[in-house]
Here is the input.
Amino acid sequence: MSVFEGFRFRRVTSPIHRLDPRVKFFYVLAMFVIAIIFTQFFPLVVLFFLQVPFVLVAGVRKEWLRSLRGALFLVVMIFAFNFVFGYLYRTYPTTAALLEYSLAMALRFLVLVESFSVFFLTTSPDHLSLALEQSHVPYEFTFAFTTAVRFVPVLAEEAQTIMDAQKARGLELERGNFLKRVRNYIPILIPLIVSAIRRSLELAEAMESRAWGATNKRTNLYVLKMKLGDFVLVLLSILLIVVGVYVYYFVSIPSLTTFLPPLPF
Amino acid sequence: MIEVKDIYFTYPTGVEALKGVSLSIGDGEFVAVMGQNGAGKTTLVKHFNGLLKPAKGGVLVDGVSTRDVSVAKLARKVGFVFQNPDHQLFCETVEEEIAFALRNFGFDEVTVEKRVTWALNLLDLAEYRKTSPFMLSGGERKRVALASVLAWDPSVVILDEPTIGQDHRQKEILRQFIVQLNGQGKTVVVVTHDVEFVAECNPRVVLMTEGKVVADGEAKKILTDTVLTLTASIVPPQITQIFLGLKDLGLPSDVIDVSEAKRILLDYLEGVKH
Here is the structure.
């Protein structure tokens, strides 16, 4: 579960936390697009380290590292799959080039995890819902989204209780082969889903009895307004895209192999 | 025999739930663990079957430390009925639900069948054998949860808040059932807020506040002690409240039993008449 820890918001303040969530999301999208267009190693390394200052300013280094550690398993898988299949189908002329490509693909995933992690770690659910609302997403959807986010810890706690209850009935989660282990989770998932549905119905009734949705036009106490820092980040993001596209079309990117001695195989 | 030796436990959130609890529960005892919300009652009993392991100190079940064996192994001896039956029911039929634990413990199918029938009859659920547990009422679901634990005949039964959400009749049936279980030699541990329920059962009471045991003894002594009940945020049973109010008449104040109360009052009225 540690990969999710890296996405859980904690209430602290920093210049990054205070930024407009819409702008931060735009930055994440820019990062996403640039990471997707490159398949070479060096630009992705640059993208990876480009985000480190954000993490440090936001003061979320520990959580960020945890999210990266949580993603490690998938990173290794991506590397292995790319390498193995690339090798089998001979998509690259040399092993060294294939190695570099696989490394780049794994790094690309890490860059994506990193940028989303920074976004979710520094954006409170309230801010997020405000951003959605002011982007003209219907309030019903916004509400459903924030409620879902807010109920994650509750659900996690409930899952723990259910696990305890089934363990007390002799269930051993770690026993058996892979298929059996997956099946072991059925006694946990069913009560969890049933109770989540039941809770959502109860929540709906409680909300309706408190006149939810009685007014058509809602106003907010807090309204998001773009400040200087926000405009700077927008500019930076646009710059990132422009530079990225320029490099992609007009600069020949050196391969890792030109800097390293040739591989012995 | 459960021995708890000076245990400490802190949740990952930083809440210190147990701060040095020592306790010994003999075979065949009937114990009620009481105290306000957050006193550490459930945390304590979760140590009895190894669901939680103490940070300091140790828990021995029949001489074996809970650190050395798996929960599944301990569960064979120590049955735990959780507060909310919805946290464990997941099968398509009541029958399957009860058989679940039996199959986990590796009973053969003939024995599973026998035990399921036995447990269904024990809790008056035979007519629901093929019903989905999700179609049953709250009280019935609670009984299914209880049956699914009793089916493997553990020597210790822990019940977490068994009376919550039960109507009066259900509660009375449950009380008689628990007393009967204890009468058959099972060790019964009940975690509860329900003073009236405890007053009627008259078990040994372990009173907890803020992660510590503040009193341990007969229900009659503890529930009628106004200082203790105040510190543990529980209210003495109604009968006791009456007798506490009538202290000036020279009546005893340590009364928790209805029939005893009736006898004392009748005797008193008889004395007044003459």
User: Anything to note?
Assistant: The two ends of chain A are 39 Å apart (CA to CA). Residues 2-123+226-258 of chain A form one domain. The mean pLDDT of chain A is 86.
